[in-house]
Amino acid sequence: MTGLGIIDAHQHCWQLARPECTWPTRDLRTIYRDFNPEDFWGEASPQGVVGSILVQSQPNEADTRYLLALAERWAFILGVVGWTDLARETAPGAIRALAQSPWLKGLRPMLQALPEDDWILRRANPDALSTMAKQRLVFDALVCPRHLPVMLELAYRHPDLTIVLDHGAKPDIAGEGLQSWQDALGALAACPRVYCKLSGLATELAEGQSWEDLLPYLDSVIEIFGPGRVLWGSDWPVLNLAGDYTRWLALAWHRVNACAPGQEAAIFRDNARRIYRLAL
After folding, report:
1. What is the rounded CA–CA span in Å between residue 249 and residue 44?
2. Can you tell me the distance from the alpha carbon of 51 to that of 4, in angstroms, rounded to the nearest whole number?
3. Band of pLDDT at residue 2, cut at 50, 70 and 90
């Protein structure tokens, strides 16, 4: 594992004192503190991680600029998935301006928190999404299972847009929503530019559930999308709410080895490099 050169396709950094930082909140005591690149590197590098994708955590362009500045200073940050308001009339120009940074690789509108499940279809500026495709920026989809039909329609409307489902679309593991989630993922997997991150699943467990309950969900992501369209990510430090870096990496590695033996390099390195157009 350590000799592969793993790319973590999903990690965060934040500073609570920054004015745009409104999450995490005090009730999330485990992660209610600053998390900086050196904190991440101290956990990830001993596990064989050589680079990462740094993903926004605040719906604010100031957060995006903060992350891009971190990428300029830290060599292991290979790319940034940022945020801009895709509903604005001026969104296409804002996207082109942000894309001047060589570290910007994608945008994430945080759809799970918006009041309308179909916001991206009804409210977003279609020219903004077309501009993302032209700039070769990835659309990171922070969604729940109820959004998956919307993602399917988005993929049909914008066939040139690369879509990556974060955290396996956050299945309802606590509510045992396996079958309906599998069906919706299968429909999306028919769209060739839709990919899926093997990340963020542990925090979907209910209190009292075992990590063994994660196995059907990890296996489903790998089997439905295939090893050429799955990317591994930690979701650090949010991961700390449910476990730790070493345990999550070991579990994901075990399931990839069981479901797609010989494809570890694709899922833990090569797919992220290709999809996000990384220099490493």
Report:
1. 10
2. 12
3. low
